[in-house]
Every structure is written in C-alpha cells, then in structure tokens.
C-alpha cells in the first residue's frame, strides 16, 4: 500500500513534467532544464540503470515460466532468445512495435483478470495474515524493492513522447489509465495469491501465478496448464516496453552529447535507433549471465527511485524558475501530492540502501565513474549543449 500511494502521487506529478517538456530523454531532459547538465546526467544515468536492468530480470522470469511448462527447456536459452526476438521487433519501427505492445498488453490484462476470478473464491484473510510473526517493520522495508517491481517502468511512457500524436493530450491519458490498471491488477493479484494458501510455498518461485492455480485447482486442472502458457503474455508485454524505454533513453542521451554519437543514429529504412537497441541488448546479456535475478531487480529499482527523486525535485524547481511554462496538465493538490511522492521515494531509497549496501556501492561507484568520464571527455557540454 505504501508503494501504491507512492506511484499514484508520483505519476500525477510526473505527468506534468512529461506534457510540459515532451522529450524522449524523459527525466534527464527535465532535470537538465531545472538544474543543468550535471544533474541531468545523474537523472539519465539512473534512468538507464532502471531500464537496462529490468529486461534481464524479466527475461529470466520468461525463461523460468518456459522451464515450468517444459523442464527440458533451458532458462537462459529462452531468456537469450527473448532479447533477439524483441530487439528485432523494435528494429522494424515504432508503429509495428506499438501495435504488438497493445495486443500483448490486452492479452496480459485479460489473463490476470481470469486468474483473479479463478483464485478469488479460495481467498482467506487468515492465510494472508498467517506466518508473519518473524516479520516486523524491518520486513516491510526489506520487501519494498519487490513491491516497487509491481509498478516499475510505468514511467517509460515519457520515452515515446516524441513519437506519438498530440503528446500533450495522449500522454496524460496513457499515464492515468496505466496507473489505474496497475493498481487494480497489482493489488488484486497480490491479495489472491497470498490469501489462497500458504504463501511461503510461493515466496521462492519465479512462477507464483501458475503455482497458485495448481494449489487451488489441482495440478491436473487444465486451467493450470493453460494459464501457465497465457502467463507469458504479461512478461512479454513488460519486456517489450522496457526495450523501447532503454533504447529511447540511450538515443536521447547520445543526441544530447552525453553518450557516444553513434547511439543516436537512426536506421535509414525503419527510422529506429538501431545502435541503441543493440547496445542495450549487449548490456542486458552481460547482466543476465552475471547476476542473480533478485540483484538485478534491486539495481533496477535503485535506478528508478533515484530518478523519481530527481524528477520530483525538478518539478518543484521548474514551478519556481519557470512559472509561465506551458503546462497542459498540472498535478492536483500541488505541492502536497508531489511532496508525498518525494517523501515516500526517500523512504524507499533509505530502505534499499540499508538492506542492500553492496549493490548501493556498485550503483554509486558506476555513477561516479560515469560522471568522471563525462567531465573528462566532454568538458564543454556543461555550457554548450542546449535542451533538445
């Protein structure tokens, strides 16, 4: 519930930035306009970590689901194949990519609604509340990164702001519909899974939904097998949208001069950032084969939370420094709503740092090295690069 409140308040705040500054760079464009190139770089780095680390974690889950369906199928083979397939789809153009995304998202939403309908009759509140004697407030904070994972990457809508018609109208509509859908499906799925039986049997699995159905309906039930196949749609939709997100962020950072220029080259035929797509895929492969899924998730969440904090600070700064900026959408109940989002983001950041010190040091070290390289290689960018 804490994370749900965070995302509701953040998305309303973030939508104001997205519509006022419709830029493929998203957070880095807002932060650069508000605070200058250095803070813009921090926001861009955090966003890259968010979107580059999410796909390998999702790919691993795709492989785990496929392995659940057929134990002879290797997890990493499916995960690797997912990168090849979805990078290829995105290379064909944003129209084709968006159409595919709409289809799999509709299927994923339908699949989750069916799941909730099948499992809800088995829900018992006593199951939800059982076996939590050893978990106090510390357990709540330790679980925050995985609660954030329910909503992670919804901010990716901003990355396609330059590729949609009338973004100042369509982007707010997309964000508000997205957060409404996510709140209903995330809370519904979590509650019925945890309340349908002994949730401890699901806590270590990469495929909790089909396992829940098997526990409720029996392992011989046709619904268990059918749903395990359909369950791939949710992962496919999420993976696909994250590929779009990382490629647009790499493209925008390159276009602004923060990253090598070749990453902003567009394919002559399809007009897609092919080098950005391929480079992000290479980074994802390295993460996929070198880290555990939980570590990759925490790194992705850490990048997201840092980006949320910088974006919210940018919102406050721009309200003061550019009061006349055209804002087609204004966050309601300003400054209360963005302030709630900022406080909750700081709480989440503190929890992640406290419970994951080594991964936090890795993130901070990579950021420091990247900043040093940026200042050494691009000494003039701080004054010379205008906002795109």
| Unreliable stretches covering 5 or more consecutive residues | 382-388
Helix content: over 70%
What is the radius of gyration computed over CA atoms, rounded to a whole number of angstroms? 21 Å
Helix count from the secondary structure assignment: 17
CATH topology: Amino acid/polyamine transporter I
Query: From the coordinates shown, what is the CATH architecture?
Result: Up-down Bundle
Shape: globular
Please indicate the percent range of residues in DSSP E strands (runs of 2 or more): under 5%
- Which structural class should the secondary elements be placed in? mainly alpha
The H/E string reads: HHHHHHHHHHHHHHHHH
The CATH class designation is Mainly Alpha
Number of strands: 0
Summed over residues and divided by their number, the pLDDT gives a mean of 86
Task: Explain what this protein looks like in three dimensions.
This protein has 388 residues and is mainly α. It has a single domain (2-384), classed as Amino acid/polyamine transporter I (Up-down Bundle), CATH 1.20.1740.10. Helices cover 73% and strands 0% of the residues. It starts with a helix and ends with a helix. Mean pLDDT is 86; it is low at 382-388.
Question: What are the key terms here?
Answer:
0% strand; Amino acid/polyamine transporter I; disordered C terminus; 388 residues; mainly alpha; globular
